[in-house]
Amino acid sequence: QVRLVESGGGLVQAGGSLKLSCTASGRTFSNVAMAWFRQAPGKEREFVASIRWSGGSTYYSDSVKDRFSISRHKYLNTVYLQMDSLNVDDTAVYYCNARGVGGSEYWGQGTQVTVSS
Prior knowledge:
The protein is 0% helix and 56% strand. By secondary structure, the protein is an all-beta fold. The strands form two sheets. Strands 2, 4, 5, 6, 9, 10 and 11 form a seven-stranded mixed beta sheet that branches. 27% of the residues are buried.
């Protein structure tokens, strides 16, 4: 009953910026936290950033800290990922993740981010 839909991916030159969005929809959904992960071809899926829904506390992977910023719109059940100073190593499919109060976990289909040099 919970669906996550990502948007905002695309092609950008190194040094540029993109902003990703992920909206959670469903008849019954109580957020605990939402997060972004990414996966490059031939690589394992890795954590990028997360945000607590209630207090808004954030956590970042060391690889994106000081470049990426995660935020949320609580009423819209939407999480954002502002990505600045992008480099080619940021090229990946970015996936939205959500955790509910019962420990349930949901994933979106992903959005492609390609950074060119």
